[in-house]
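Sequence in, structure out. Go.
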Amino acid sequence: MPQMSDDERRKFLVEGTRTAIVATTRKDGRPHVAPVWFVLDGDDVIFTTGRDTVKGRTIRREGRVALCVDEPRMPYAHIIIEGTVTISEDLDEMLPWATRIAARYVGEEKAEAYGKRNAVPGELLIRVTPEKFVTERSATGE
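Output:
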């Protein structure tokens, strides 16, 4: 399985509008997965979520997550990130990140409106600091 270099990994993660699938563990041990919009800050993954959602509650309790970002077309590349989280509810800190995330997924023209919609009380700004990367440049070996 061909692995990605650090530069290939960063390029893959910021390309287009791929979402990250966030995996957490519920209080009773059941797994939970959910897609999120995200951006990078260096190697850290930044996203927002509601404080009272399943993922918001489990992230606050556990302090760690796994994420998977994939390419669903040939050559079926993917990256798995395991890491610890830092959580902020500071709206002044959250707004620029929420706006930057929105710009990636809905475009610059709508970014400010989406940023303001997502940087509100009850939202969490999540920073995932990677502890482990698993990368595969091509599941087909091509």
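Check: Residues 6-89+127-136 form a domain with the Pnp Oxidase; Chain A fold (CATH 2.30.110.10). The beta strands are 20-25, 31-36, 39-41, 44-50, 64-70, 78-88, 123-136.
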